[in-house]
Structure formats: C-alpha cells, structure tokens
Amino acid sequence: MEVDILELSDRSAKFVLSRVSTAFANGIRRAMIADVPTLAIEYVNIYDNTSVLYDEQLALRLSLIPLVTDLEAYVPQAECDVCGGEGCPACEVSLTLSAEGPGVVYSRDLISSDPKIQPADLNIPIVELKKGQKLVLEAIAHMGYGRDSARWQAGIACGYKNVPIINIQNCDACGHCAAECPKGIIQLEESGARVSEEDILKCSLCRLCEQVCDIHAIKIGYDESAFVFTMESDGSYTAKDLALNAANVIKGKAEEILGILNQF
C-alpha cells in the first residue's frame, strides 16, 4: 500500500491510495463516516427556555454541533468498563449554557466541564433571544458511532475515485475533445491533444472526450488498484487524525477476525 498526499489542512485532505483493492478503499471511506467514535450531545436538561424554539428543536440543534474529541481520554458509553454504560467522566462530558436576551446564542457560549472538549466551531448560532427571554440548560455529550446517528459522524464529504488513465495516440488536433472536456484539462499542441501529469487526477472519467473523437484517438481507463481520496472532517478530529483513526479501525477489525479464526 502507498499513500501520496496531495492536499492537507486541518479540516480536509486529498491523497492517492494505491496498491489496494476497491473493498479496502471503501472500508476506509466507511470507517471515516461510521466507525470512528466521536463526542456529541445526546441528552439535554432544559431548566428555563422562553425562546421561540421548542425544547426539542433546541436539543436537535445542540446535538449537531461538532465537539473536539479526545479519543484517548474517552470511550463509547456502551463500551465503558468503569460505569457499565451508566455515564461517568470516562464516557461523557457535561456542557452548560446560561444566556439572556437580547442577542444571539452561539456555540461558544457552551461551557464544558472538560476544557479540552469544546465546540469545533465557536460561531454556530443556536437561537436568537429577544429582550427578557432566557435559556438555561445542561447538555450531556457521549461518545458514539456515526453508524448509529448522524450526530456522531466525524467524516463528511468522504469519497474516492479510481486514478484515471488517459491514452492519446494518432491525434489530428481537431480540438473537439478539448472543447468537450468539462474539466478543461486537455491541451492542444502541434502534435495533437495531451493531458499533463498534474491534470490527469482532475479527470472525472466522464468519457465525453472519448465519445466526441471521430477517429478514436482517445482511450479513457482507470487503475483498478489506485484511488484518489477526498475527505473533510467536521472538526471533531483533524483530517489527518480522522484518516489515521479510520485505518486503525480497519486494522483492529482485521486483528479481531484473525484472533477468532486462530481459535479453530
């Protein structure tokens, strides 16, 4: 397996994963979305709410606020050996909020019992309070998996495509392919059309250039063992940590299966 990093920031990444099967690539994608545990608000105790939103609407908005997650300090509630799933500092975090209008209540107004656990984005609007309106509540965040609820999905816009292979031979430089390409990556030269090495990965495999070529000079294919990955994180983890955690999930499942098989 080989990994070539193309782009990397705190929230997003683009890389080429090669010498792997389609099943493995899809396993990494699914793990990013569904199998890496994150913290999210699950229960809300509302003590005073005179805003225009119902309690249920407030709870839903709060549950979808991404929280920075420390995978080493917390475990999913159902897997907690300390409390057996009842709730304890090893599997849950308390966040309180007390606000009075006029003004907009933002995610930054949540006060966490653990300074390391904060909203990933501090400027997410929760509700607008008019003069005299109040909101007082306690939110309980638990570790969970994206496969159980969208509130725990750390990976967003995670996808991949096969690495394109573009073969151009005996081109008459008519220009039809360049005009048809939606990505604008085909360049015309005296010797014919060509695509630079830097632009090949931009190809969407639409095959429009292949279809419009009357002399069949262009052949579009793809590498079955190489994939261009694009991914984004909701802020619970950095993009790098999310990818590494997803790989560790796959590794852990493989080791678990190996251990079961070795018993026979």
Could you characterize the architecture of this molecule?
With about 260 residues, the protein is of the alpha+beta class. It folds into 2 domains: about 1-35 and about 155-230, Gyrase A, domain 2 (2-Layer Sandwich); about 40-150, Beta Complex (RNA Polymerase Alpha Subunit, Chain A, domain 2), CATH 2.170.120. It is about 20% helix and about 35% strand. It is built from 5 helices and 12 strands. The strands form 4 sheets. The chain has a 4-stranded antiparallel β-sheet. A 4-stranded antiparallel β-sheet has the order 3-8-4-6, covered by helices on one side. The protein has a two-stranded antiparallel sheet with strand order 5-7. Strand 1 (about 1-10) and strand 2 (about 10-20) form a beta hairpin. The longest helix is centred in the C-terminal third of the chain and has 23 residues, at about 240-260. The mean pLDDT is about 90. This is DNA-directed RNA polymerase subunit Rpo3. DNA-dependent RNA polymerase (RNAP) catalyzes the transcription of DNA into RNA using the four ribonucleoside triphosphates as substrates. Belongs to the archaeal Rpo3/eukaryotic RPB3 RNA polymerase subunit family. GO terms for molecular function: 3 iron, 4 sulfur cluster binding; DNA binding; DNA-directed RNA polymerase activity; metal ion binding; oxidoreductase activity; protein dimerization activity.
